[in-house]
Amino acid sequence: MLAFDGNELIAHASVVERGLLYQERRLKTGYVEALAVAPARRRAGLGSKVMEQVELMLQNEFELGALSTTDLALPLYERRGWQRWRGTTWVRRTAHDARQRTTTASSCGRSPRPSTCTGASPATSGVATSGDDHGA
Ligand SMILES: CC(C)(COP(=O)(O)OP(=O)(O)OC[C@H]1O[C@@H](n2cnc3c(N)ncnc32)[C@H](O)[C@@H]1OP(=O)(O)O)[C@@H](O)C(=O)NCCC(=O)NCCS
Fold first, then answer.
1. Which band of pLDDT confidence, cut at 50, 70 and 90, is reported for residue 17?
2. Ligand 1 centroid from CA 73, angstroms
3. Domain 2-135 has CATH 3.40.630.30
4. Percent helix, strand, coil in the chain (nearest 5)?
5. What predicted TM-score, i.e. pTM, was given to this entire model?
6. Which of 34, 46, 109, 134 is 20–30 Å from 18 (CA)?
7. Is the pLDDT of residue 62 over 50?
8. Smallest CA separation from ligand 1 atom 30, residue
């Protein structure tokens, strides 16, 4: 997702499909990455606007939204209804089910149906790859 002002790219974000396991059920998860706004354009609501579009996509195409956040962006997500996952998360290496604990600092999840949020989020990008399953 790209936002332009004329020819100038001023904000972007992406959604990557990942499998997130919760109690052995695989949830089709839209994992939000690369939300960023050009420095000169921050604190003017652009990040929120981009997230609004991201959340519409999550609502229409996924069972769950998840992301890993910086401390800076945490208030933005929480204000929008995202909830912190306070439990442990793991990366499952598919072949032998060996699990590696993730080291992420803050993870958030968001259900497309906000009243039933059961969010969980994997990993720093160094641990997770898009082919892995993630468990909580
Ligand atoms: C995080 C980021 C995307 C926010 O974009 P933005 O356009 O400034 O966000 P908004 O203007 O929509 O902010 C919405 C709310 O989020 C919170 N917020 C955003 N930036 C904040 C900051 N630097 N400090 C504290 N709260 C902040 C505020 O509650 C803000 O509402 P307010 O301005 O009415 O107080 C932008 O700062 C950025 O690109 N940072 C660098 C990349 C990054 O950290 N991306 C997040 C990856 S998880």
1. very high
2. 5
3. yes
4. 20, 40, 40
5. 0.81
6. 46
7. yes
8. 76
